Amino acid sequence: MVYLDANATEPLHPEARATMLAALDVTGNPSSVHAAGRAARRVLEGAREALAARFGALAQNLVFTSGGTEADALAIHALGAGRRVIVGATEHDAVRAAVPAPSLLPVDRDGVADLDVLASWLATGTPALVCLMLANNETGTIQPVAGAAQLCRRYGAWLHVDAVQAAGRMDVRLSALGAHSIAISSHKLGGPPGAGALLLAPEAASIAPLIAGGGQERGRRGGTPPLPAIAGFAAAASVADGAGRLAPMRDAAEAAAIVDGAVVCGGGAERLANTTCLALPGIRADAQVIALDLDGIAVSAGAACSSGKVTASHVLAAMGLGALAGQAIRVSLPWNADATDVAAFAAAYRRMADQLRGALAPRAA
Ligand code: PLP
C-alpha cells in the first residue's frame, strides 16, 4: 500500500517508538512523591520542556491533553467564555463543534481568511476570541495568522491557533505567531495518538480546566498523563524537521493529476508542502477514494474525521467551489514519502480517472 494520508495520521517516527518503549518501563505516577513517582515526573517534565522549547512557549504554560481536539476544546472553553467567538470558515470540526454560536469569518477562493472583515468585527469593541488555524487539513492553505494576531492585540481580543497540521511541517512558535494559544497533536507529527498539547502565552496561562480531576497540569487538565505517549510525542517533535523535502514530490503528484483533468483546490495560496487537494469535475470524491484504495493508494475525501459521511467538504464549500466540494480528494505525503510513492500515485490516478469517467460516459445504443 502507498500511504498518502499523512494529514489523517503520520507514520510513527522510529525515534518516537524507541522512546515510548523505554517509557513503558517507567512504573511510577508523576504525581507520587516517592522515587518511582519522581522518575516518572522527570520523563514528563523533560517532554514538556522539549516541546515547549520547540514550539516557543514556557514549559509551565504547556498543558498536556489527549490530542488536538481536546486542546482546541480547552482553549475555546477557557478563552471564549463570555466572549464573541469568531471562527475561520474552514476550521476543523474540533474547533467548530466546540463553539455553539460562532461568527464565521469568510475566506477567499483559496481558503485564505479575510482580515478586513476580521478588523471590522473586532473594531466594534465586543470582547472576542478569534480561532484561526495555521494550516488547513484539507487544502494545506496557510492562514495569515501573524496579521490576525496584530489585529487581536490591537483590539484586545484573544487569538487561538489550531496548529495541529502545521506543527512539525513548518516553523511553529507561539511567541513568533503572537497568538495567545496554540493546539498541537502528537499523531500529526509522527508521534503516537493519545497525546496533544495546548501552549499558552503568559498572559493567557491561568485557565479554567475542562476536566478538573486531580489538579494535574497545574489545575488546568485533570487526569494521570499518558507517559509513553507524551514521551513519544516529544521525541517525534524533536526529529520532525519540516515538510520542505516533500514539496517537489507534492508538485509532481499535482502536475500528473492536472494532466488527467484535476483542479487544485487552494492552489493559489501559500500551502503546506506535503498537501494537495485535487478535485475531479463530475466524479464523486468517495468513488475516487474507493477506486484508489482498490489500486493500493490510501488518500481521503475531505477530512479523515468525517470519513464515512459522503457530505461535501465544508472547507471547499466555504471557498465557493460549488459542486467541486463533493468531488475532491486530499493527498497528503507522509514524512517518509519517496519518489516511487508519487510515481505509483500518478499511475493509479490516471487509471482511476479513466475508469470513473468511462463509467459516466453514455453507452452506445
Ligand atoms: N485540528 C486539525 C486541523 C486537524 O486536522 C485535526 C485532526 O485531523 C484536529 C484538529 C484534531 O486532532 P486530534 O486527531 O489529535 O484530536
Detailed description of the structure:
By secondary structure, the chain is of the alpha/beta class. The protein has 12 helices and 12 strands. It has 2 domains: 125 residues, Aspartate Aminotransferase, domain 1, CATH 3.90.1150; 226 residues, Type I PLP-dependent aspartate aminotransferase-like (Major domain) (Aspartate Aminotransferase, domain 2), CATH 3.40.640. Helix content is 36%, strand content 13%. The strands form 3 sheets. Strands 2-8-7-6-5-3-4 form a 7-stranded mixed beta sheet, sandwiched between helices. A 3-stranded antiparallel beta sheet has the order 9-10-12. Bound molecules: pyridoxal-5'-phosphate (PLP).
What is the total domain count? Answer: 2
Q: What does the main sheet amount to?
A: 7 strands, mixed
Q: Indicate the overall shape.
A: globular
The end-to-end distance, rounded to whole angstroms, is: 39 Å
CATH architecture designation of the largest domain: 3-Layer(aba) Sandwich
The H-and-E topology, N to C, reads as EHHEHEHEHEHEHEEHHEEHEHEH
Question: What is the radius of gyration computed over CA atoms, rounded to a whole number of angstroms?
Answer: 21 Å
